[in-house]
Amino acid sequence: MNSQVALVAEKDEEQKYAVARKSAPNVVKGRRSFFEYVDLGVTDGSKGKMRVQKTSATNGLSKPTGWHYHKCEGQFVYMLDGWLELEFSDGETIHLEEGDSVYIPGFMPHNEIRTSDAFELLEFSVPAEMGTESCDPPAN
Length: 140
Hints:
Jelly Rolls; 6-stranded antiparallel beta sheet; 3-stranded antiparallel beta sheet; 11% helix
C-alpha cells in the first residue's frame, strides 16, 4: 500500500458514519435560548471536524442578536423554511428565503436582525467547535 492510500485508510478509521433520525431528534443547547437546535450526528461521526445542525424557531427573532463573529474556518447556512435577514460590516443586508444559502467566513462580523415568525435552517461549521464572540458594530 502506498503512503497516500495508507493515510486515507488511517483517516477513515478516525471517522465513522453517523445517522440522525427525525423520530428521535438530538436536541442540544445552542448559542441562542430562543431557538431549538437539533444535532444531526456529524460532529461525532467526523470526530469534531465538522458540525451540522438544524435550527428552528416558532416565535421568530424578538430582537437582533447583536454584532458578533464565530471562531471557526467557516459557517454555511441553508434555509429550509421561512426567512432570515443578516447584516454585514460592509453595510450590506441580505434576506434569505427557503432554498437560499450563505457562506460566512470565520471571524467575519455579522448581525442577525430579523426572521419570519417560524423558520428552519441547516447550519454547517468547520470545525464543529465554533465559538461566538460579541464585537462592536462597524463604524459606518
